[in-house]
Specification:
Blueprint lengths: L12 H6 L10 H4 L5 H11 L6 H13 L4 H14 L11
Length: 96
């Protein structure tokens, strides 16, 4: 793993957080909802990564990843639901 998402070679973080152009990336509708301007969306996206996921959820995320590794669509959906439910203080609002 890397210490920061922008250090991961295949991450879209540099595009979404800083606007570094990448011809292979298309913005998801949820990303578009982060703000009305490019700068607002980038700021909000960077803010998402300030979230510290509690240790007990790291184990749950890994368990989901291992269990659904052959079904990336379900895995992406479950992971998205987990992240959406974590508030900016890193507290989950539901249990998985």
């Amino acid at each position: 793993m890397v210490d920061s998402p922008e250090h991961y070679r295949w991450s879209s973080y540099r595009w979404h957080a800083w606007g570094n152009k990448n011809i292979y990336i298309r913005d998801h509708a949820l990303y578009q909802q982060l703000g009305s301007t490019e700068k607002e969306r980038q700021y909000a996206y960077r803010d998402l990564f300030k979230l510290q996921i509690p240790d007990q959820y790291i184990h749950k995320i890994e368990s989901l990843r291992l269990h659904y590794s052959r079904d990336p669509i379900i895995l992406e959906g479950l992971f998205t639901l987990l992240i959406i439910q974590l508030d900016m203080d890193g507290r989950s609002q539901f249990n998985i």
